[in-house]
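Reading a protein record of the kind used here takes only a little practice. These numbers are not coordinates but entries in a learned vocabulary of local backbone shapes. Here is one such record, which you should read through line by line.
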Amino acid sequence: MLKTWSDILNQVPNSRLLICVPEGVIRDNMFSYFAGRGILSERISAFAKVSHPEFWKMHAEVDIALDPFPFGGGTTSCETLWLGVPLVTCTGIAAGEVLEQSFVQRFASRMGYAFLRSLGLQQLAAQTVAEYVSIAVALAKDKERLAQLRQTLRARMANSPLTDEPRFVNEMEAAYRAIWQAWCVQQSETSHGEAVAITLEAPMKTFLHVGCGPKQNDRIVKGFNAPEWKELRLDIDPTVQPDIIGTMTDMRSVESESVDAIYSSHNIEHLYPHEVPVALAEFMRVLKPTGFVIITCPDLQSVCALVAEDKLTDAAYTSPAGPIAPLDILYGHRPAMAKGNLYMAHRCGFTQKVLVATLQSAGFAKHASMKRPGPGFDLWIAATKSEAPDELVLGLAAAHFPK
């Protein structure tokens, strides 16, 4: 850390470092280290622990706060930003730079990044030591930007998720929920042939199963096939006896902001391309602010790889309905359509990149996705209606995606 700060001081003429460090051997060693790198003691202002009011007053002398790593500031970083001082941070240290790679993902190393991201100032968060130095030096030389940040940081923070307590509580509750769901999935799996009982109770939540088909538990992913979830079934086909007869593009029978989640398995490809944004707008409408979607559909990229090998009508895998060829995945299940079920026709398709971009364009805030080659040949995406921590979205993927 001292080496990094020395590099910054040496690249910014006439700069000074204000640092809290106890008197004694530690402080003496610090001054000795800086002297060995050509930094005179006059450029270092060291102080012992002070009261909060004194700490706040010190910010009148400070232009830039240098967040230490790998353990960054928490409360002090928030107070520094509130007092109009920009923070330069490093998300741990990249592999090979002092610490093991696993540390960079820990909370202690990512607090500063979380604060800056909330303020829309991710550009002040470095990934490496060299970048940390570069950001700090460039900012120190940009007087106009420093003045602008000094004048606007408090207002920026006041209008950010950092000080939006209701939103923070909602996101934290959603994160707890995702962790609990993942735990339920793990606990409900058998161990040596014996099921593990789940005794933890939670309020019932509702997921809308779009394009549900006949009622079967094996048509639901493990994350929803759990005690705390209530299924609300919607389908265009009345013969499958859904709770609601409707289409993805017209779910007027479902109240706005009334469901906690939506599950759509191999439905979106049945829409025409121009209908997809309409359907996703309906998804957004009926989801609660903390809601999310789980969507799965064919992966055209992996299917087309089979077509390129001239395997258009060869069986790619066998389903309960029989052999499925790339032709069925591209255009719809031929045996079902031959019997008159034209609901099975496919009218559009997606690659992972296109599916992610489509949900982002529809307004979904955060996502996690994956693609499965054979035998699945499918795409999976979990997306939240509102901004959510990365850990929450990854938790949704862990709970609902196939292993």
About this structure: Residues 94-102, 195-201 have pLDDT under 50 and may be disordered.
